[in-house]
Amino acid sequence: MTEEEKTxxxxxxxxxxxxxxxxxxxxxxxxxxxxxxxxxLRCAAETDNxxxxxxxxxxxxxxxxxxxxxxxxxxxxxxxxxxLGYVREGASAEALNLAEGVRLTLKGLMDVLKExxxxxxxxxxxxxxDPNLHEAIGxxxxxxxxxxxxxxxxxxxxxxxxxxxxxAKVLVATAAPETE
Length: 180
Prior knowledge:
The chain is an alpha+beta fold. It has 3 helices and 6 strands. The termini are far apart.
């Protein structure tokens, strides 16, 4: 090999080595860029998930913020209902007027509470007893109703949206003893 060929070969080898080193370095940078891009996408997704979760929690807190106040009002609702139950047919005009005022007050209060998510828990006579919605406070022998159904509602139950805040207190029907 001539001196000139040796120099050209050495130059080509140097250029090739530099090119390979640059390509390897570029490949390392590209790999690191992909890792950071993946990390960025994961962080962005996690941030979005947290934002949605916090928004849902805020809505839940806002939705049930009045639960304590509503629970405090329930005994008053019960008392107004009891007051209406004491008015008998044939009562004086004055008593009937007072009862009508109580009925309108109760209706107005219930309308406001319903607008804010309160609803009555159904506990009608003959309806099957559901321990998720009803609290059995006693049993009552019944011939007309199947055992395990509601015989009588003693106290109304309420739910705030889908959350039960007070179960309905009921008497549950049992088979009546046979008489001889």
